[in-house]
Amino acid sequence: MSSTSTSTSTDTGTGTGTGTGTGSTSPAPRSRTERRRDTEHRLAHDVDVWVASASADGAPYLVPLSFDWDGEALLVATLANSPTGRNLTATRAARLALGGTRDVTMIDGDVEVFAMDALSQEQGDRFAARTGFDPRRDVDTPYSWFRITPRRVQAWREADEVPARGLMRDGRWLTD
Q1: With contact defined as beta carbons under 8 Å apart, do 78 and 67 qualify?
Q2: Residue 59 backbone dihedrals phi, psi, to 5 degrees
Q3: How far apart are the C-alpha atoms of 151 and 96, rounded to whole Å?
Q4: Going by DSSP bridges, is the β-strand pair 143-156/74-79 parallel, antiparallel, or unpaired?
Q5: Could you count the other beta carbons within 10 Å of the beta carbon of residue 93?
Q6: Is 74 in contact with 108 (CB distance < 8 Å)?
Q7: Radius of gyration of the chain (CA)
Q8: I need a labelling partner for 173 at 20 to 30 A (CA). Which of 39, 69, 71, 87 fits?
Q9: What is the tens place of the pLDDT at every residue in 42-85?
Q10: Which 3 state secondary structure label does DSSP give 156?
Q11: pLDDT of 132
Q12: What mean pLDDT is reported for the chain?
């Protein structure tokens, strides 16, 4: 995420639980179909995602990055030599988190690494338009693209959705 960008994550209010002491009640648990729809909406409309990675020796690292979703994978860009860039390149795995703690989507994904000039002009332009950040323009600092394909997706709002939180397994969406 560029230092000048701001988070524009969509919070539809559907994931707000009680926890405030106001006496309001939590919404009923969503079906897997509803949770998948909400997850796909979040992927299509949110701009920032938390990216967790680990070094080869297991040291964790967590950063927010802007992303573009093409319907199959998330595209992020970060400095090639940053801890996240080095970790994603070395391990080819990431865990992503969208949303707040009371309406979260967790994604475990496989990572492909690309040089800045490896993607089409159209893909780079789409990323820049969506995120407000164009890493191709920073010629003094080498960025890389990271395409993260979901392998496992989980989504839940409250404890009552935790037992059935799985939405994707082995890269395939689960159905009701």
Answers
A1: no
A2: -75, 120
A3: 11
A4: antiparallel
A5: 16
A6: no
A7: 17
A8: 87
A9: 999 999 999 999 998 999 999 999 999 999 999 999 999 999 99
A10: strand
A11: 95
A12: 87
CA–CA gap between residue 161 and residue 155 (Å, rounded): 8
Which of 45, 26, 175 is CA-nearest to residue 105?
45
Instruction: For residue 144, list its beta bridge partners.
Output: 78, 115
DSSP per residue, the chain? --TT--------STT----SSS---PPPPPPHHHHHHHHHHHHHH--EEEEEEE-TT--EEEEEEE-EE-SS-EEEEEETTSHHHHHHHHH-EEEEEEEETTEEEEEEEEEEEEEGGGS-HHHHHHHHHHHS--GGG-TTS-EEEEEEEEEEEEEESSGGGGGG-EEEETTEE---
The answer to whether 35 touches 28, Cβ cutoff 8 Å, is: no
Question: Which amino acid appears at position 120 of this protein?
Answer: S
What gap in Å lies between CA 102 and CA 165, rounded to an integer?
13
175 falls in which pLDDT band (50, 70, 90)? Answer: confident
Cα–Cα nearest to 38, from 66, 14, 72, 67: 14
Query: Which residue type is seen at 33?
Result: T
CA distance linking residue 168 with residue 1, whole number of Å = 26
Tens-place pLDDT, residues 110-143? 999 999 999 999 999 999 999 999 999 977 889 9
Residue linked to tokens 């994604």: 107
The answer to whether the CB of 87 falls within 8 A of the CB of 55 is yes
